[in-house]
Amino acid sequence: MMIRLLTMSRMRIFEVLRLLVLGCNSLAFVKGLTTLTQYKIEKLTSLDGIHTFQDFVRGGLIEYLDVNEQNNALIALYEGEATSETTHIEIEPFTILGVCAGLIPYPHHNQSPRNTYQCAMGKQAMGSIAYNQFSRMDSVLYLLLYPQRPLLTTRTIELVGYDKLGAGQNATVAVMSYSGYDIEDAIVMNKSSLDRGFGRCIVMKSYTAIYQKNYENGTSDRVLRPQRTGPGSERMQILDDDGLAAPGEIIKPNDIYINKESPIHTTGQRVPADGQQDIGYKPAKQTFKGPEGESCVVDRVAFCSDKSENLCIKFIIRHTRRPEVGDKFSSRHGQKGVCGTIIQQEDFPFSETGICPDLIMNPHGFPSRMTIGKMIELLGGKAGVSCGRFYYGSAFGEASGHADRVEAISETLVKRGFSYNGKDFLYSGITGCPLQAYIFMGPIYYQKLKHMVRFSSHYSSGPRVMLTRQPTEGRAGNGGLRVGEMERDCLISYGASLLIFERLMISSDPFEVQVCRKCGLLGYFSHMLKRGICSSCSNGDNISMIKLPYACKLLFQKRASFENPFYLNEFMDTFDW
Amino acid sequence: MEGVSYQRFPKVKIRELKDDYAKFELRDTDASMANALRRVMIAEVPTIAIDLVEIEVNSSVLNDEFIAHRLGLIPLTSERAMSMRFSRDCDACDGDGQCEFCSVEFHLRAKCMTDQTLDVTSKDLYSSDHTVVPVDFTDSAGYDSSEQRGIIIVKLRRGQELRLRAIARKGIGKDHAKWSPAATVTFMYEPEIHINEDMMETLTLEEKQSFVESSPTRVFDIDPNTQQVVVVDPEAYTYDDEVLKKAEAMGKPGLVEIYAKEDSFIFTVESTGAIKASQLVLNAIEVLKQKLDAVRLSEDTVEADDQFGELGAHMRGG
Ligand SMILES: [Zn+2]
Ligand SMILES: [Zn+2]
Q1: Where are the alpha helices (DSSP H) in A349-505?
Q2: Contact (CB, 8 A) for A360 and A350
Q3: Which of A235, A278, A386, B18 is 20 to 30 A (C-alpha) from B97?
């Protein structure tokens, strides 16, 4: 906790603020600039050991300002912009942004919401998470096989170490239309690039088994040596003699990863230690329920004890995946898109120098998003690879030399035999003829996001709620997804109303009810008389049988229960009974 | 039925030929032919690559699939690939790697015993067949052979070990890029550049200089003696139109005229080292011929003539 005393002399206010979390602190030089000699500035910038940064903070030359204090300060971006009114000078403008926004190259050239989107998306990007990533036991961990350092970096990237633990890859992007599978921000990917490792990732999931030691009656679980022959042994192939899955084994769905048994009776009279062998056990095997048709591998098995001193066995199961149609990718400019299709390299456009893009992005992504920063990133990246150095795009960095200017980038491009505007002359890979337009092509740092279709696609034939006979809600409980009114409206407006009937009634939950044509209420089917009876008319003379969804029948009954029933005979003219 | 003959006789002129690099001209044909050749070179010339890895011990930092993927991408010398069988078509075996017609077995054993990091490279792969070995880059590229030790697979620290058996099979780039023998295969239309000498003479030396510099690649230069603008390297022209725009900006449209010759192509072929660049081109032509055989109609089918008419006659070379 931190206490801030705030004086606002002009308004004669003295505020005491208690901040639970540190406010957004910005670094700034105090006004006493005149006392700060050039000598001192040099001492500070070189940090030679005589003066440290802290000395300047203590000496009052550097001050940390929080958001409230900033309201009462007039801060100049650069020394030259300071006037007599100025209270502070920013040490370096790019420090205004934090870690997330600091990763964006040329953010000051983007429309501001795009930077906001990227700040949220950068956290979903796969990459290397830490140097100890292979020793950790996270419940889910997404890692990129070949993470790269961005070709277009910022000073923040270097300060936070994103260049050492990256979360993306430099992809050669061609901004053009291709194949129609690139509408609505979808990207077209080069199959050979994927073969060579672009966008490959490791998904590691942890599965836990608890070995309960002390039940109420003193008995405990046991892990058995697996059966090697006979029925059921084929599901135990990956088990070691200790009854646990062995690291390095390929695990398929329905394979057993721990051959555990629990005592049948866990309560009641205490079983003495020497009588443990005689008690009955029931199998408590745990089976792997991964997606069908994927080969997963047991990566590690770890032992630990949980809070109630039970032995806890954790299995890390690893799966290496290559990108597929529907996987989500994003550049660092809030431009997310799914992979629309994967196309062979020979069908991809190529330049006469032999360059073939890794992915194709539709140009319609630019006009409405106005992410000029992405275009400059492409130019700078292209200049970077052609001359062999990293280009910089720190926020507001052009003035202080922390961002390369487009003019300088273009000059490099021309020097290396490219067009100054970053466009290339490409040939169609399908016909071999030149493309009609010059194509804006170059490297852009792309992030692979954690949403993958394999995990997002969902269907259900799972559990139902007893009362309504509708599927349970939510993906977590293997439930269904609701086809709501708006979804229904889509089908009606498309003219597929029969499809609704088929899906929501015939293939869903049809239910036969007996209806009385005279009073219009629901009756019942008497199995004794083998015919429908109306309870209110006390006869079965006017009974008809109709089919309706079970939920509909439930609604009728609920309405009837609070004395406001539907009279179904009102619809008799509408429907053919 | 006598059809019109569309047959052409393409000519090839080789400009430069190294083991892993070839540059040649292809003349008197059209883009479809040139592109077919390019596509076959990338995707359909067979090579041999590691396809199945059986890991015995792996205590390295990289996981099994990671290493298997890296092994697959190592180019292997594949002169034998054209005569080998695809594993799926092989009737002499069940694809277990013991078959001489369709597979080659590799072994790798490495263990780091010292405190120095051990680099496991493609040189550590031992092949059961001396004609199929990891490509050696040391001799041709002219690097210091003591320093260059092949393609790195994984690095081991003290105590870590890697032991595996791998089976290499024949395949094509269409199935997986690891089987593609081509690093770069590309072509360009040969440009034809005409300078309007009369108009050029009206320019001052500075104007000529700025005209020459307007091209991002060095296509034009000024002859130091005659001070005339000359074309030094027409193929450096990247069809960027910069000089045309410059001429227009100088108020001299038509100062130069540049056309693409639609029937001559300059090919650049770089091989991964699996097969020689020259052999890559020849194999591509061979594969292309085999593909054409599949669509060519036999000489005496009358129904085919009814079905395809003039096209049938054309395909029989009529
Ligand atoms: Zn009734
Ligand atoms: Zn065989």
Answers
A1: 372-387, 406-415, 453-456, 485-494, 497-501
A2: no
A3: A235
Q: Give me the pLDDT at residue A46, please.
A: 60
Specify the 3-state DSSP secondary structure of A139. Answer: coil
Nearest Cα of chain A lies from the Cα of B300 at a distance, in angstroms, of 32
Q: What are phi and psi of A386, to 5 degrees?
A: -75, -25
Chain A interface test: which of B26, B61, B64, B270 (most A C-beta within 10 Å)? B64
Query: For a pLDDT cut of 70, what percent of chain A falls above it?
Result: 86
Stretch(es) of chain A classified as CATH 2.40.50.150: 206-321
B17 compared with A573, residue with greater pLDDT: B17
Q: Show residues of chain B in contact with A429, CB under 8 Å.
A: 35, 39
In chain B, CATH 2.170.120.12 sits at 47-179
> How far does Cα B142 stand from its chain's mean position?
21
* Whole-structure pTM value: 0.80
- Is the domain covering A101-200+325-448 a CATH 1.10.10.10 domain? no
Q: What ipTM describes this predicted complex? A: 0.85
Asked whether A64 and A17 are in contact (CB, 8 A), the reply is no
Confidence tier at A23 by pLDDT (50, 70, 90): very low
Residues 425-484 of A with CB under 8 A from B: 425, 427, 429-434, 438
Mark yes or no for CB contact B31/A433 under 8 Å: yes
Question: What is the predicted pLDDT for the residue at A16?
Answer: 66
| Chain B neighbors of A436, CB-CB under 8 A | none
Q: Distance of CA A566 to CAs A468, A539, A553, A557, Å?
A: 19, 20, 11, 9
CB-nearest to B177 from A192, A320, A430 is A192
Among A197, A419, A420, the residue with its CB nearest the CB of B69 is A197
Architecture of domain B197-254: 2-Layer Sandwich (3.30)
Q: Which fold has domain A509-574?
A: DCoH-like (3.90.1800)
Q: Express each pLDDT in A483-532 by its tens digit.
A: 888 888 888 899 988 888 888 888 888 899 999 988 889 999 988 888 88
Phi, psi of A411 (to 5 degrees): -60, -45
Query: Residue A56 pLDDT > 80, yes or no?
Result: no
- Cα distance from A62 to chain B (closest Cα, Å)? 45
> Most B CBs within 10 Å: which of A195, A386, A420, A435, as the mutation test of the B interface?
A195
- CATH for B47-179, options being 3.10.450.540, 3.40.50.300, 2.40.128.110, 2.170.120.12: 2.170.120.12
Under CATH, which architecture does the A458-508 domain have? Alpha-Beta Complex (3.90)
* Cβ–Cβ gap A432/B65 under 8 Å: no
> Are B32 and A200 an interchain contact pair (Cβ–Cβ within 8 Å)?
no
CA angle B142, B147, B153 (to 5 degrees): 105
Q: What is the pLDDT of residues A113-165, one digit of tens each?
A: 999 999 999 999 999 999 999 888 899 999 999 999 999 999 999 999 999 99
**Rounded distance, CA B51 to CA A195, Å?**
13
Q: How far apart are alpha carbons A139 and A141 in whole angstroms?
A: 7
Inter-chain CB proximity B61 and A134 less than 8 Å? yes
Ligand 1 center–CA A540 separation, angstroms:
8
